[in-house]
Amino acid sequence: MIELEGLTKRFGSKVAVDRLSFTVRPGVVTGFLGPNGAGKSTTMRMMLDLDNPTSGTVRIDGKHYRDLQEPLKYIGALLDAKAMHGGRTAYNNLLCLAQANRIPASRVAEVLDTVGLTAVAKKKTKGFSLGMGQRLGIASALLGDPEILMFDEPVNGLDPEGIHWIRNLMKQLAAEGRTIFVSSHLMSEMALTADHLIVIGQGRLLADTSMADFIHQNSRSYVRLRSPQQERLRDVLHESGLTPVEAGNGTLEIDGATTEQVGELAAEHRIVLHELSSQRASLEEAFMQMTANAVEYHAHSASGHGPQWAPRDKGA
Ligand SMILES: Nc1ncnc2c1ncn2[C@@H]1O[C@H](COP(=O)(O)OP(=O)(O)OP(=O)(O)O)[C@@H](O)[C@H]1O
Known about the structure:
Layout: E1 2-11, E2 14-24, E3 29-33, H1 40-47, E4 55-60, E5 75-78, H2 90-100, H3 106-114, H4 130-142, E6 148-152, H5 160-175, E7 179-183, H6 187-193, E8 196-201, E9 204-210, H7 211-218, E10 221-226, H8 230-239, E11 245-246, E12 251-255, H9 259-268, E13 275-280, H10 283-291, E14 297-300, E15 308-311
Parallel strand pairs: 3-7, 3-8, 5-6, 6-7
Antiparallel strand pairs: 1-2, 1-4, 8-9, 10-12, 10-13, 11-12, 14-15
The site of adenosine-5'-triphosphate has 11 residues, from strand 2 and helix 1.
Organism: Streptomyces tirandamycinicus
Protein name: ABC transporter ATP-binding protein
Family: Belongs to the ABC transporter superfamily.
């Protein structure tokens, strides 16, 4: 378990992390979301004692990081996959880390196997692709067999097979009862991986909720339908107090209705339906909706000369 209480970090006059309090629990994958510059990396660095908080605390299984004996056995992290020694082989990079943390050398081969790098174990890492570097970074996080794992943008540079692999790995580690904390900008991927979400904007906590509740609370849900008898259907819907809206391609959308309600109404009036579905916005839409006012930079698209980045008004 990771517990943050009033965690704050200032860089000069810039408040990068602003009184963050939340708990990352075991047994689930917790996604960490926020627009660029929201303070995610700074928060993760403070969790690992790589940055000192200006105020507030982080506890790892009830203790400060610096009080953990052999911390890699408590918490493993992938923050910067390029942080390996390029002149050393994959095996030797991990062996050095293992020896420095009193982890048995036999564990190196195990984690190389877990991440699929056994065949290149004896190759120097400077020749590694981005994806291989990510896998090696994940191997180093797993080295101490920790109960808590933290991944900053783990799918960065991975191909579809690699993305699928890391998704399953995180789910499997969570199912083993471990605490998994992961940041990503890839919303579609996060939607498939995380059970719980922590969302921050401009250093502040915006949401600490389940994935399902987050999408439910921050997006529109509606019923979509198509019928070859659209005029008649519209009349029937209106008579029942519903307000269908034309959505193009012969499709109607109705807010505040259920598929059961609309389906039964259509059947009652012997109206043929070619489509009847319940629609919910994606995590990406919900995220954009929630963080709209917490994005540091927005593109001006009206110029016709490509995006120009400009600071947004940072009121409340
Ligand atoms: N060492 C530093 N000195 C000064 N400002 C910093 C420093 N590190 C981060 N910041 C600022 O703190 C804010 C939060 O940065 P951080 O990298 O934690 O955000 P992030 O959510 O990880 O962003 P991204 O999604 O772009 O990686 C940003 O405004 C950044 O410019």
